[in-house]
Amino acid sequence: MVLNIDRRSLIVGGSLGLGALVLPAGRGLAAQLLGASGFTHNVASGEPGADSMLLWTRYVPAAGDAVIRLDAEVALDPDFTKQVAGGTVRTGAYRDWTAKITVDGLKPGTVYWYRFVAPDGSKSPVGRTKTLPEGNVSRFNLGVFSCSNLPNGWFNAYGHAAERDDLDLWLHVGDYIYEYGNASYKGKALPGRVVEPDHEMVALADYRLRLACYRADPDLQRLHQMAPMVALWDDHESTNDSWEGGAQNHQADKEGDWNARRAAAIQAYREWMPISDEPWKAYPIGTLATLYRTESRLLGRTQPADIGAAFRTEDPDAALKVFRDGAWQDPSATMLGSTQESWLAHALKANARSTAWQLVGMGTIIGRTLMPADALSWLRPDTNDRTASRFKNDIRAARQGLPMWMDRWDGYPAARARLLKAAQHADADLVMIAGDSHNAWAYSLAQDGKPAGVEFAGHAVTSGGMEGGFAADPRIVAKGFIATNPELKWADTSQRGYMMIGITPDRVTGEWLFMQTIQSRTTTLAGTHRMHVERGRRAFAG
Q: What are 457's strand-pairing partners?
């Protein structure tokens, strides 16, 4: 049964919780109940270890209990005839009836089945999860997602990935939800894909309700049900272009104190996602690789430099040169904060000795990207003056060696250099994995004229990319970007989907999978593209 999310389907029940759409075993909607109770949002797992796993669910009791207890059961089979582990966890309205428990005593590289049991004896849907391997590992497959804007389209990438049996772990690198209200989509949201609350999320209740709305989607539920996820937030889990002290899409006179909004976003995300409260973490995959979960938005990131001021002067070119040699190069600017920078540098050095590959999950792209000089010729004939002016400014900045996005690592060149130098100093085979841009990119990263690693940058699950403003053939656009940017080796600026990262001792292969459409619910692919890096090369082959 196809899920249509509308206001009638989303009924608040149990404090600030959502009486949501129930999806038993990921197969179909059981009911849309007023003030729904029971297991409202299926199950999920995350924070995998070789002998442990974090398990998640949400349960709203029918009675007005303040606190309830759930039992977790873990077995080697989906029928639970071989139960091997478990535990007990409390939840209540104080955490929106979500529950998380870390179960220990598991075996490495093993598939487990899990469920929760409520006080009334009812059982949650059964989830599947898999612990990380130990020792020598011949292969590990990672599914990578980013930028899933629900009103923009169907989560077909989630549905396609959930059907696979060759992936060991999901990695979501951010923009799992979006903060905007329905009016922001100006009538372009797909029928049945409106969000709750109707307005932009600002308060804790808003963030909880929006997460509950997204988590009611059947393909996203199925994804979480079938394998563990490592997840990190980017900006839209709070609001657009956020940093430690504010955001582009936060105005104190309209939306109140930033610190209160930031705290609400963090709390709701940690309640609703199968993650621990640790801000960053490393996950060893035997001797094969170490995967890193980073935080680059709300805890340490400094405000990006304001390149816009240069365009408002009488001599923009002169102002851009001053900006390039001054504010843009400020060594105090940081994406991660000094504590996390130090942690990552030390971890790369230590783990490069014991694991073949160092895979760093990151919210935004680190590869250098300047706007091509001929980009104006790609624009649609009906492009408005404001958009055309923005492209002209980006082209003007590129002539001074300045990037088109100050909100990603390009806008923090000193911090970027520190990270890449740390990888070089560690003698690490570095693989960056990022999202954010909505389009697909592959970069061979360099620092001080030497290879520093590669980056697989993924396209969006549904969020629209730069193709929305172009009339030119996407192949021409990609060719123009590659010709302008030495680090960029391949690009696709027109399709939605997800990535699969295949890791072996000698090679990491990235595959971009493109969905045929997001306008209707289907898991049909339009095509794929593959690239790989060989151990020790630290650049893409060819």
A: 434, 441
Whole-number CA gyration radius for the chain: 23
**Contact present, 50 and 104 (Cβ < 8 Å):** no
* 505: preceding bond cis by omega (within 30 degrees): no
C-beta of residue 289 within 8 angstroms of C-beta of residue 359 = yes
- Cβ atoms of 109 and 134 within 8 Å: the answer is yes
Q: What 3-state DSSP class applies to 176?
A: coil
Q: How many CB atoms lie within 10 A of CB 430?
A: 25
How many Å apart are CA 147 and CA 230, to the nearest integer?
15
DSSP code of residue 497: E
Structure tokens at 385: 């003056």
Neighbouring residues of 221: CB distance < 8 A, sequence distance ≥ 6:
23, 26, 41, 42, 215
CA 226, chain centre distance (Å) = 18
Taking the C-alpha atoms of residue 504 and residue 401, their distance in angstroms, rounded to an integer, is: 37
* Average pLDDT taken over every residue of the chain: 92
pLDDT at residue 66, rounded to an integer: 85
With tokens 């890096």, the residue in question is 533
Question: For the ranges 20-29, 163-172, 359-368, 398-407, which has the lowest average pLDDT?
Answer: 20-29
DSSP 28-79: ------TT--EEEEEEEEES--SS-EEEEEEEE-SS--SEEEEEEEEESSTT
Among candidate residues 48, 185, 37, the one with its CA nearest the CA of residue 107: 48
